[in-house]
Design brief:
By secondary structure, the protein is of the alpha/beta class. It contains 11 helices and 18 strands. β12 and β13 form a beta hairpin. α6 packs parallel to α7. The radius of gyration is 24 Å and the shape is globular. It starts with a helix and ends with a strand. Keywords: Calcium, Hydrolase, Metal-binding.
């Protein structure tokens, strides 16, 4: 009898223990915010040496996360760069090049999978504000590429029938006068026409308010926010609140307003208890448009700027903050790129990678500062329709003969007007970027084996992605979306 009572008691205790065991809740899925600037140079944020204006919010991001010193846009021009960011592909793989005009016959194909589509399949809310530039009409606007919400411009803010001085163009012989009115789009519909520089001055605050509203509205479930500012791409303009505030001219005023926009997003995350589990990525689509002089930024001493495969055109500032996972105050000298954002975010959020081949690599080990992490061994610099203009491996960069614009042969413009940016021949050259980031000393004669190694690696890309400079089509290129022309 005593044994039966003891056995019964043991069963009761065991049952109670089982019933009281509640498995721990899984960690909430992280949110992701990508803040993408337009034409912001490597040397523009104060933490990269910019000034004399101040960018305290970007400084704080760097202090709380990781600052990259060798981070590359997918290509040194608007549409191609954005295609690379959102799809994880070198843009020439998916048929996107240059800056798409309002009447461009091509767009980002709906067969390509974007970050938004991958995360939406995981139950994320997805929103975009700002410049799209991957197709200006349905079915190629953001809502057809995985975003639940969109407010912004369909292309660059200088694609409008307005002169550099802000006055409407009435001369029909002026090609700029042939642009259609510049639309502000919500969803798939135009809700307003941007007509003046005063209208442009509202864009930064308009985007910021909508971004913060999106965060608040979706704070109870995981979200992906893509915030693509229209500036500091020209024409630059600032709200009355920031006009004259920096003491460093209109560009300085704009940098402080853009920095405040970042601060507003960060504050919204913090006020809603989301900052520790949100990965925030800040970077730029390419380097500065230097021929606009005091309305353009700087490269921090890197060679040339936007529209070139030199470092000033393609190496961009990049800050990442995720307090739950990324150690604070890290400076990374490893090579990484915007094409690496998609596979990294997919890994972090447990999303599937695209069915089609991509070029990006998962850099999460780099973000977590795992020992020996160096995911990206090399990087290729394509430009134009499909020209392989340079390749980098480790500290060495081999530049192939091609024609490229230069900002060095003419004085830049002033107060919104451009200077000349002629094309010049560029010879074969090898640069050691560790000691010569300005690409001034050709060391190919000293290191012929390095030249040979990089040439062989470039040939592999020529076979798959092609190279117009060698008249090679490539076996792995895909077609862009085709826009129905009226």
């Amino acid at each position: 009898m005593i044994k039966k009572i003891l056995a019964a008691g043991l069963l009761a205790v065991t049952a109670a223990a089982v019933c009281s065991f509640i498995p721990p809740k899984p960690a909430p899925a992280p949110n992701v915010v990508v803040i993408f600037m337009d034409d912001m140079g490597y040397g523009d944020p104060a933490v990269y040496g910019g000034g004399p204006y101040k960018t305290p919010n970007l400084d704080r991001m760097a202090a709380r996360g990781i600052r990259f010193t060798h981070f590359y846009a997918a290509q040194a021009v608007c549409s191609a760069s954005r295609a690379g960011l959102l799809t994880g592909c070198y843009p020439n793989r998916i048929g996107i090049h240059g800056a798409l005009w309002p009447t461009a016959p091509t767009a980002l194909s709906n067969e390509e999978e974007t970050i938004a589509e991958l995360l939406k399949a995981k139950g994320y809310s997805t929103g975009m504000v700002g410049k799209w530039h991957l197709g200006s009409k349905p079915p190629f606007l953001p809502l057809q590429h995985g975003f639940d919400e969109y407010l912004g411009l369909p292309y660059s803010n200088d694609m409008w029938p307005v002169h550099y001085d802000g006055k409407p163009i009435t001369d029909t012989a002026n090609n700029r006068g042939k642009y259609p009115p510049l639309p502000l789009i919500e969803g798939n519909n135009t809700i307003r026409i941007i007509k003046t520089l005063d209208d442009q001055a509202e864009l930064t605050s308009l985007y910021t308010e909508r971004a913060c509203r999106f965060i608040k509205a979706h704070k109870n479930k995981p979200f992906f926010l893509y915030m693509a500012h229209s500036m500091p791409h020209v024409p630059i303009a600032v709200s009355q609140k920031y006009k004259g505030r920096s003491g460093a001219g209109l560009f300085g005023d704009l940098m402080e307003e853009l920095d405040a926009s970042v601060g507003a997003v960060m504050k919204t995350l913090e006020e809603n208890g989301l900052d520790k589990n949100t990965l925030v990525i800040f970077t730029s689509d390419n380097g500065p448009w230097l021929n606009y002089g005091n309305h353009a930024g700087n490269t921090g001493g890197l060679r040339e700027g936007k529209g070139t495969s030199f470092e000033g055109g393609q190496r961009v500032p990049c800050l990442m903050q995720w307090p739950a996972q990324i150690p604070a105050g890290i400076v990374s000298n490893a090579v990484a790129s915007t094409i690496d954002i998609l596979p990294t975010v997919a890994t972090i959020c447990g999303a599937k990678l695209p069915a089609r081949k991509i070029d990006g690599l998962n850099i999460l080990p780099l973000l977590k500062q795992e020992k020996g992490a160096n995911p990206r061994d090399h990087f290729v610099y394509y430009y134009g329709v499909n020209s392989l203009e340079a390749i980098r491996k480790g500290k060495y960069k081999l530049v192939f003969p091609h024609k490229a614009r230069t900002y060095k042969n003419n004085l830049p413009g002033y107060d919104g007007f451009p200077g000349a940016q002629p094309n010049i021949p560029v010879p074969l050259a090898l640069y050691d970027l560790s000691s010569d980031p300005g690409e001034t000393l050709d060391v190919q004669k000293q290191f012929p084996d390095v030249v040979k190694e990089l040439e062989a690696l470039a040939d592999q890309y020529r076979q798959t992605l092609g190279d117009d400079l060698k008249d090679i089509k490539g076996t792995e290129r895909r077609e862009p979306g085709k826009v129905a022309m009226k």
